[in-house]
Write a structure and sequence with these properties.
The structure holds three protein chains of three kinds. By secondary structure, chain A is an all-alpha fold. Chain A has a single domain (7-104), classed as Helix Hairpins (Orthogonal Bundle), CATH 1.10.287. In chain A, 73% of the residues lie in helices and 0% in strands. Chain A has three helices and no strands. Chain B has 14 helices and no strands. Chain C is an all-alpha fold. Among the domains of chain C are: 1-83, NADH-ubiquinone/plastoquinone oxidoreductase chain 6, subunit NuoJ (Four Helix Bundle (Hemerythrin (Met), subunit A)), CATH 1.20.120.1200; 129-169. Helices cover 68% and strands 0% of the residues of chain C. Chain C has helices at residues 6-27, 31-51, 55-80, 92-115, 130-137, 146-167. Chain C is globular, with a radius of gyration of 22 Å. At the A-C interface, helix 1, helix 2 and helix 3 of A face helix 1, helix 2, helix 3, helix 4 and helix 5 of C.
Amino acid sequence: MWQDITLQDVLIVSTLMFFSGVYGFLTRRNLITMLMSVELMLNAVNINFVAFNYFLHPENMHGMFFALFVVVIAAAEASVAIAIIIGIYRRFKSINIEDVSNMKY
Amino acid sequence: MTGLVYDFSVITQSIDHYLVSHWGPSLAATIEFVLVGILYLLIYALVGLMLVYAERRICAFIQCRLGPNRVGPQGIFQTIADFIKLLLKENIRIERADKLLFFVAPFIIIVGSFLAFGTIPFAKGLHALDPDIGLFFIMAATSIGVIGILLAGWSSNSKYSLIGAMRSGAQIVSYELSVGLAIVTMVILTGTLQLSEIIEMQRDGWFIFKGHIPAILSFVILLIAGTAETNRGPFDLAEAESELTAGFHTEYSGIKFAFFFLAEYMNMFVLASVATTLFLGGWMPLHLGNFETFNHVMDFIPPLVWFLVKVFTVIYIIMLFKWTYPRLRIDQLLSLEWKYLLPINLFNLILMSVIVLLGLHF
Amino acid sequence: MMSITFHQAVFYFFSAIIVIFSILTVTSKRILRAATFLLFVLLGTAAFYFILNYAFMGALQITLYAGGIVVLIIFSILLTSHVGERFEPIGWGKMIASALVSLIGAGFTLYVLLNADFIPTQAPLPDASVKNIGTALLSYERNGFVLPFEVVSLLLLAAIVGAIVIARKEPHDTENPNNE
């Protein structure tokens, strides 16, 4: 049905998405935005799983199931991460990682 | 097959053949998308306006007033006049608000309810989308709306809006659970998520009769939780007039306010349609066992009429809620969900599984 | 040769949305705008899944990401920052270094990608209907996923409990957190 799209097209998009996530993770100093960058990267990987599944090995939909579990685990991860962020905010009145460096020592 | 067949897929398919033969598949698909989109937008707006009118009349009826009755016969053009007035009103610019998000928020809400609206089966073959994940798709689409509410509340830089948005966010997120579980309970009985198949299975009896006790329970739960999820009725503390002026859309004016208003009513319509499709047989006529004559008379009424009559009955019930019960407090609201609806729902889910396993349904 | 088909047009439209909004997500100065742009990226990803015929995956993406994670993120933003707040500008050195890292990474990956020789399969398209997915998720045969399914359900339970325990207000350290 969608034979006029190639695997490369999808992978280029997911690569750009992944590396903008990397850029965000390196430059951002706010915990929530860093979490958002991580979500971007997870999504890019998910697209890759589904695309490889669809274009190369469509037999058992293994790629899709992998992506499905990644999404579910990302939800669990985000909920715990946000609980931690709220806890940090309560204690330090800030979610900037420069202000939360107590744990280094 | 019964006497009269109202199958709209014949019409849509012939239009499709015509377009494809004239312009080729790609252009035809584009034209179809545009056509269906415009048609659905028109229906969306019209149904929304009708619902606003209906609500005002019903509210007036309950409060022993007349309601709108000047513009047109029985005042049916009142909301259209109001709509034109809103279109012409000034869009007030808010100082120190986040302009972009303030602009985007109403559109997110509208997109959410419009996507869900697209899957509603009005009659046989008369729906824009019929994916095999039907009900799941509707739940996914309606879950976008809450983001619009949160964005609207935050970006308008007003305390009323922010408190309203937070309340409404907590409310929608928690009641989504009950709506989902009520739907899942029914999915155990139907065994499919596709709306057209669900309706087809109710040819010889609606699910509210077939599934008896658990179906009735989940119908009631779906109505309560759905009312809460659309921020209506006794659960409208996100926009409680006496406390928060208007909640998350306090700062909105003109056409954007109309968007929020429209989305609220259309969410109610979607909820009523889902309830109708799941429990009341969608566009299927009412059939009573072996009363052949009765069944034939019922078949004679077009499915579209059946569907709309059922939907508006459900909407009438929802509106009765709103105008007869006092508003809940936030703690009452949350304890209703977490202490009553959720346990009942889980129990109901198990009951339904047992009934389906033992074949105790009709 | 046909110039561009309808499918391709749809695909390029969503690709453009994904790329533009991913970049905006990581460069926007206001935190809630970044979250909104992230929402658009996630919806674009869902559109990709719909394009590739994995409707279930797309709906899951919308429900869990757009309806779950983004709502969580926006909630925590509402609790921790206020409108009008901007991020401080990042130092030039750091910005250039990060940009270089990501550009080199992207360039290298793209180079590998474009030179790789993917052999498109001739196998029939997968039947990603809900029925198949459900059967596979609960099957313990060769291609079944019942073990990860159950493990994930345990993980979710642990995450729920963990999140509640972490974010709970301690009853007696409200005033001075250092005074044990």
